[in-house]
Amino acid sequence: MSAPLYGLVEAGGTKFVLGVARGPDEIIATTRIPTITPAETIPAMCDWLAGHGALAAVGVATFGPVEVDRSSPQWGHVLGTPKAGWPNTDLVGPLVERLGCPVGLDTDVTAAALAEYRWGAGQGQPSVLYFTIGTGVGGGVVIGGRPLAGVSHPEMGHFHLPLHPADAEFTGVCPFHGTCLEGLASGPAVKARYGISLSELPSDHIGHEVVAWYLAHAVMTAQAMFEPGRIVLGGGVMGTPGLIERVRGEAERIGKGYFRGKASETVVLPGLGERSGLLGALALAQAAIR
Fold first, then answer.
1. Domain count of the chain?
2. Which end of the chain is more exposed for a tag (fewer CB within 10 A), N or C?
């Protein structure tokens, strides 16, 4: 008897990555569709998944903010996102109506943390924290196999941290909080200062030191709050050569040896590479039928 077939949705601000899989090592098909309007994107998502036959469950790893509380009448709805046209969009309802199967839902970063915990860089660890550093900054935590959530999902890109001495005049790009982590270390924040991406800057440019400084403070904050076995740094900005080494070194320096986990061992790139989000959707789908 073959393993159940799951539908996978990694919903992003620019594209939806879709897949069908029987397990992490058996992804049968994938495709990408642009994130246009809900009226265009959601039916295209449902059509593609429906074209692969009966599904045991669907997992949705989505950009946020999103309602993750199943007891809420807004469960499965994108909430106050700055993505034009998407606030209050129901992601789950159309899938249930069209496919008639259970749906698991969480943020893309929490799903990625879950995938890394189960199959990636966090295997064998008691807890994993995942930061994505890209167009935005977000984070998710898995402790003992369960994602952490309070009255809503974590918003780890929006805490404040000290400004780098060479960055004192920068006001940040976050429209809500200015100089929060997202406002200082995201891809748009880098371009707002320097006009190009971090990977395009010369290797000796101060921008590398500035971004590593902020990410190292995020690492230290994560250690102080959770002492996770692994802190996984994903997202496009982390593709910059040498950045992970800079972050580790700076985190060790400012941590002053206080934390049990050494940044040189704890801070890692995603073990699943670009598959973290899609495999996170698989983990959510599997949980939906358990």
1. 2
2. N
